[in-house]
Amino acid sequence: MKIERFEMERYQSTWENTVEFNLADSGVHPITLAALVDHSWIREVLAREQLGYGHTNGSEELRTTIAGLYHAAGPEHVLVTSGTAEANFLITWALLEPGDHTVVMLPNYMQIPGLARAWGAEAVSSWLREPAEWMPDLEELERLVTPKTKAIFVCNPNNPTGAVFSVDAMNALCAAAARVNAWVVADEVYRGAELDGHPTSSFWGRYPKVIVTGGLSKAYGLPGLRIGWIVAPHDTVQVLWSYHDYTTIAPSVLSDHLARVALGPRAFQRLATRTRLILNENLEAVARWVDGLGGLVSWIAPRAGAIAFLRYQPRVNSTELATRLRKAHDVLVVPGDHFQLDGHIRIGYGGDKRLLEEGLRRIAEFLRTV
Ligand SMILES: Cc1ncc(COP(=O)(O)O)c(C=O)c1O
């Protein structure tokens, strides 16, 4: 099996630790261990945790807590994984066979189309449209879904646009899948990072053949825990668990424990409030910056996620623009090319506000000279 290069991940891994102004991250600024739990808890509880394998599918308590984020889900519907990335990997691995037909909504994080092709499946693109504020084109979707379609893959809230699908669009998408008995696989890792504080509706529960992925990396500011999950029908979870035996076996016991704390009654609200504050305060700075550029940059303001997808005026290729920004101005942004949408860049605005503002100032200075 050959895999194609995962352009965005490789690009970020290569450059993110070399620049002063990293505007390529997509999550809310990570928190420290000390901000999550106090020292006595670390001493009394965490320090006494046996460093064993733990529950390979995630502890019952963690799975129950995660299930609580979804309507009518129970711990038997949840498999805990090492990040949402592993969750997506397991699903495509278990679901797709060579020659399978899938429809993938684009733009997205681009892990799914790469994996689908790696397993030998056909990944037909259905594009979210900028003039339609990055909403799905349901008529196009209807045309692309055929009786051979095995799965429709979506990312909602969406990376890179920050768009959130309407409930009507979600229901129409499930209806299209239901007509041909296809799976709906929804990456919902940005759920919980909404600017207005209203959690995005989940695909879970809208149709029996839905599989949802999520995790702590984006809305909770805890990517270092590497905790993700799958929510799926019970028999599907059992199948996916057996695939998990071949990858990472189990989530780290320390991460399992800290994830229980993060999603528990005391920390959950605190983290949600922090996320909303950071997103709103920082997005205001981005909006002011866009307004001040006199049309050099335009956007559909994101509704969720710590990412904004910007269309720029100067006629320069996005990879070239990102490379010049990095080399000459020490700023890292993601080129639209990584999403097959040249003429755009993705910026992450969930980080330190001072660095964000200086990064934006440098981007503006650069764009004015191109
Ligand atoms: C849509 C989407 N899914 C999955 C991931 C991977 O997340 P995790 O850190 O939970 O593995 C990312 C990371 O950027 C993402 O944007």
Write up this protein.
The structure is a single chain. With 370 residues, the chain is of the alpha/beta class. It folds into 2 domains: 7-32 and 268-369, Alpha-Beta Complex (Aspartate Aminotransferase, domain 1), CATH 3.90.1150.10; 51-266, Aspartate Aminotransferase, domain 2 (3-Layer(aba) Sandwich), CATH 3.40.640. The chain contains 13 helices and 13 strands. Strand 9 and strand 10 form a beta hairpin. The mean pLDDT is 97. The structure holds pyridoxal-5'-phosphate. Residues 26, 83-85, 109, 155, 159, 187, 189, 215, 217, 223, 228 line the site of pyridoxal-5'-phosphate. Belongs to the class-I pyridoxal-phosphate-dependent aminotransferase family. Keywords: Aminotransferase, Transferase. Residues 48-363 form the Aminotransferase class I/classII large domain. Its cofactor is pyridoxal 5'-phosphate.
Question: Summed up, what is this model?
Answer:
This protein has helices at 7-15, 33-36, 39-44, 60-67, 83-95, 111-118, 138-144, 167-179, 234-244, 253-262, 265-291, 318-329, 353-369, and strands at 21-22, 78-82, 101-106, 122-127, 149-155, 183-187, 210-215, 227-231, 297-299, 307-312, 331-332, 334-335, 344-348. By secondary structure, it is α/β, with parallel strands linked by helices.
Just give the CATH class of the largest domain. Alpha Beta
Number of helices: 13
Quantity of strands, as a count? 13
Strand proportion, as a percent range, falls in 15-25%
- Secondary-structure-based class equals alpha/beta
- The H-level CATH homologous superfamily of the largest domain, spelled out, is Type I PLP-dependent aspartate aminotransferase-like (Major domain)
The CATH architecture of the largest domain can be given as: 3-Layer(aba) Sandwich
The ligands bound in this entry are: pyridoxal-5'-phosphate
Largest sheet: 7 strands, mixed
Order of helices and strands: HEHHHEHEHEHEHEEEHHHEEHEEEH
Number of discrete domains: 2
What distance separates the N and C termini? 42 Å
Q: Give the overall shape.
A: globular
The residue-averaged pLDDT reads: 97
Low-confidence stretches: none
Strand order of the largest sheet: 2-8-7-6-5-3-4
What is the subunit organization of this protein? single chain
CATH topology of the largest domain: Aspartate Aminotransferase, domain 2
Rg calculated over all Cα atoms: 20 Å
Helix content percent band: 25-40%
